[in-house]
Amino acid sequence: MTLPAKSVELIERRAQLLGPNVSTFYDEPVHFVKGEGVWLWDADGRKYLDCYNNVPHVGHCNPRVVEAICRQASTLNTHTRYLHDGILDYVEKLTGTMDASLDTAILTCTGSEANDIALRMAEGMTGKRGIIATDATYHGNTALVSQLSKSNIPTVGFGLDQYFRFVRAPDSYRNPDLDGAKFADAVAEQIAEHENSGTGFAALILCPYFLNEGFPDHPDGWLAPAADVVRKAGGLLICDEVQSGFGRTGTHMWAHQKMGVVPDIMTIGKPMANGHPVGGVATRSEIIATFREGYRYFNTFGGNPVSCAAALAVLEEIEEQNLVANSKSVGDHARNRLNLLKEKYDFIGDVRGSGLIFGAEMVLNRDSKEPAGEFTERVINAMRCRGIIHSKLGHHKNTLKIRPPMPFSVENADLLFDTLAEVLAETPLVA
Asked: Are residues 264 and 338 in the same domain?
């Protein structure tokens, strides 16, 4: 495939106007100009099935969300230092989906901001600064939160790296931990290191379904032992539900419910308003009170009426369209299709997922489980050329990451796997 002249021009302009190293997906980047439901169209009118984007959670250009944004934008938009019922209606409905202890929220513009606030809340509640995360995760890009991405820690960071320690990301395929005890022990070791260093332990932050880590296959309740270790040490558990929340697992509204824990703090972002920039922190009222007393925090755009209207429309759409149940039924079908491919191809080492998070880990050899990262990359690019977009992730970047919008159907899944079967048949394991 040769890139259209317009795409070449856009790539050149990006380098000129946005600076170097601005990432794009695929060997031949796509120029998308339109979206609807689970579909995207490029500048030449070609249609693509979106099997990747969780930001348009209830579908690209969802009519309910679009109408809510337009209606509120044409009426009023301002900051939260004036009284407005929109933010109260939204937070009330949002926290109504959670444990009763998570009864209060702060709204932001991004998940990065939400996680930044969460870490400061942990410091405020414990008086300590030691944070633990996994070594293959991502939680955002503020100066503080960027320190959590061990694979891409910035070369300058205001000396903040001293406050962060890491545990090996769980791997159900290569290092099974059926009851979560190994992971809990690893967390306990890093807690002790924080305490011995004089920094002290404040919080463990993680995605409860470990999406960036390759969504390992763990039984419900798996996180409970780690949560017990954290609480025993006087720390807080922060669950980043930016990717895993809003019913995506198909079993629960929030992945932490599936994993058997109630976090002290929960953060959300990208899918919250279907692409409108909204993020949030939900927690106990006493934690927010302590934070408010210790930090002078205000966000001009966080919780504005338009953002809240969009976010409320997402919750209504999830409920009225029964999208959590859809996630489970379509996800079950998708994994059945993937397992059929696994029976046929030895390079599919493992199939896993829950709801509309699913994928397969590609290996050069099933016995050695040697990662097939380059092969995975070729598969993804071949799928893009056939009008299917998805990505890869995990420690070895060899796990297909399939995370489509929530209205994804059985028919969509069949198109995905019919196409994947063709690509796997044509793509050599070793180039």
From this structure: no
Last residue of a domain, one of 272, 299, 320: 320
Q: What φ, ψ does residue 276 adopt, rounded to 5°?
A: -70, 135
pLDDT digits (tens, 9 = 90+) for 227-239: 999 999 999 999 9
Q: Which domain holds residue 347?
A: 5-58+324-426
What's the domain count of the chain? 2
Burial annotation 182-216 (CB, 10 A radius, 16+ → b, else e): bbbebbbebbeebeeeebbbbbbbbbbbbbbbbbb
Residue 173 lies in a domain: yes
For residue 334, the domain's CATH number is: 3.90.1150.10
Which two tokens mark 296?
């002078």
In a domain, 196, yes or no: yes
CA distance 233 to 231: 5
Summarize pLDDT for 280-299 with one digit per residue, the tens.
999 999 999 999 998 888 89
Name the residue among 398, 238, 417, 286 with its Cα closest to residue 339: 417
pTM value is 0.96
Tell me the residue length of the chain. 431
| Tokens found for residue 176 | 């099974």
- 85's CB contacts (< 8 A; 6+ apart) are none
